[in-house]
Every structure is written in structure tokens, then in C-alpha cells.
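Trying the structure run again after the queue cleared.
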Amino acid sequence: MQNNREIIIEAKGLSVSFLIQRHGINNIKDFIITMGVKSPFEKKNVLKNLDLTIYKGECLGVMGRNGCGKSTLLRTIAGIMKPDGGTLTVNGNVAPLMALGVGLEPELSGLENIRLVGTLMGLSKKELKNSLASIIDFSELTDDEIGMQVKRYSSGMMARLAFSIAVATDPEILIIDEALAVGDLGFRQKCAMRINEIKKSGSTIIYVSHHLDEIKNTCTRAIFMEDGKIALSGDVNEVCEYYTTHLKRKTTAVPVA
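Done. C-alpha cells:
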């Protein structure tokens, strides 16, 4: 029974919001004038009283339209964002592979980013030293590219570097947020093999993707998010079918100009 398995992540009544700019502000004068009338910002509720339990060793697929709260949920689990309501318990170290470029310092070289991000992930100096060659080898970046500032990287190069760092060791919790969509076919296949290795090692994986085949091939359970809540949770194929139907319904509901 699933309820006898070890819980690694649990959210109860989780709410997350952030401030968005309400009025156009081009300079400090606009800001001061606007502040005299009303706040230039408004609060946007992104996650709304969300409940979620993830068990150790699961590979959870997360689906939903853009803006439904997927990335906010992952950023909150990774500790990048803080909840302003409810509780969130994460029992393990998280290796986040978020949207392209997140976590990489553009002014630093690829090599410097390996050391920086690896340290932030909790790797010791010895682990970093032992993993350095394999990280560079997995990324397939040349010596010149590794020594180059990341701001000079193409999107594919950033994806290679970020993924290679995140999977340098078998993390307790691996978060993947659409970060592999820009990679070439060969590297994506290589990443899929590494993800399967991590899954077999007993790690927990949270995988966000709009590609249903990736979800079906990788995940053991899936959730569909809508308007900051979980609309459906369960069998991967069932949730994928619901997702497809939902998209078709939304598309046909849009009037043609």
C-alpha cells in the first residue's frame, strides 16, 4: 500500500504569492507619485491551499498550462520561494534543474559555475574534486567553452552545464522543470538514460514537461495543475489523457477573430 511508504515531501494548505507591478513605472519620480496614490504593486496568489504528498522513490510528473503554478511549486520545494500559508516539509537534499539559466551566474565561467552550484547543492570540496572531470565530460563542453563566461553560452550549452551539475551525484530529490527542451536529440537521450539511472538508485524525481511521451516514459505518477491547485492526481496515462482533453477543450473555447 502506498500509504505505508516513506513520505519525502508533504504540502498541506500550501499558499504562495508574489507582488506584480500594477502601473507603469519608468523612473523614481513615477514610483514616488504612484506611491502617493496607491501601491504600484498588487499581490498575485499563485498556489492556493494546495495539498500534495510525494513518496520516496517516486517519479512525479507535473502537467498544466503555462501560468498554472507548476514552476512556483517546484521553486517552493527547492527553497527558492517561501510559502506565505500552509506547511511544506521536505525530507531530503534537493538538486533543482529549473528553467534555463536559473542558478547559473552569467558573469562566471562554466568551471566557476560548477564549483559554485555544486557547493550550493551541498557537495563537499572532495566530492566536487572527484566529480569535476565527470561533470565536464557529461556536458560535452570543450575546454574553451568550460573556461568561457556563461553569458556567452547558447541555450543548449546552458542546458548541458546545468544538467551535468545537477546529476553529478545521485540526489535525494531531483527537480526538472522543462530544462531539457532546448537540448539536441543526442543529449536529451543521454539525459533520459541518466534520469533512469537516478530513478533506479531510489531517488525521488519531480518532472515538469509539456511532452506527454517524456512523462509517460519517465514518471510513475502524475498530477495536473490548474489555477494554482491540483485538479487531478493519479495514473500517468489517465492524467495525460485528461491533460490532452483539457487542452482541446480550452482551444475550441477560444473564439476566432
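The two ends are 52 Å apart (CA to CA). Worth checking whether this holds up in the mutant runs.
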